[in-house]
Write a structure and sequence with these properties.
Helix content: over 70%
Mean pLDDT: 90
Distance between the termini: 32 Å
Low-confidence stretches: none
Largest sheet: none
Shape: globular
Structural class: mainly alpha
Number of strands: 0
Length: 175
């Protein structure tokens, strides 16, 4: 959020002019939506596992850290030399898509821990597991591609998918 504040600050005339990017904005929005959905879904652990283990707690910390790192890769920590967020995204895309794959694997593990393969297949449903499967080719292509259009379309589709999956699969916390 501090980084987004920096973007807003630059766009409002403080510092050098900043060129925005649909690819950068859509992926940043997708990660923010994923963070919101992560915390929404993780509240289910209170019902699933009233007595947490240190292992479960550490797993959730690692998962949350992975989401945080995705955001960190997308937002400059120093604005020196950053004039175009699209170019900034392209320079960091290999890190971003690699982390996207890692965090997606953590999401699959999270689903499995909540109830085994039955939960993954039935409770998570096709909206979620198709997301998991689609992440692999999107990330592999994303690592290799310098097409801003590809990254913008992929990011926009994943943003919409992330929001809709949260609304469809878990509109309320109860089971």
């Amino acid at each position: 959020l501090v980084g987004v504040g920096g973007i807003v600050d630059r766009l409002s005339g403080h510092g050098a002019q900043l060129r925005t990017s649909l690819a950068h904005a859509s992926w940043l929005g997708m990660i923010f939506a994923w963070m919101i959905m992560f915390w929404w879904w993780e509240f289910r652990w209170a019902e699933l596992e009233p007595e947490w283990t240190m292992g479960l707690y550490l797993f959730l910390v690692v998962y949350a850290t992975g989401l945080f790192l995705l955001a960190v890769v997308l937002v400059p920590t120093s604005w020196d030399g950053v004039a175009d967020l699209g170019e900034y995204f392209l320079r960091r895309r290999a890190w971003f898509y690699t982390l996207l794959l890692v965090v997606t694997v953590l999401d699959v593990i999270d689903g499995y821990l909540k109830g085994g393969w039955d939960y993954v297949v039935n409770a998570a449903g096709p909206v979620i597991w198709v997301f998991w499967i689609a992440t692999l080719p999107v990330a592999v292509i994303g690592i290799r591609s310098r097409s801003r259009r590809y990254h913008a379309v992929a990011g926009t589709v994943f943003l919409v998918w992330q929001v809709l999956s949260g609304i469809i699969t878990l509109p309320h916390l109860g089971f």
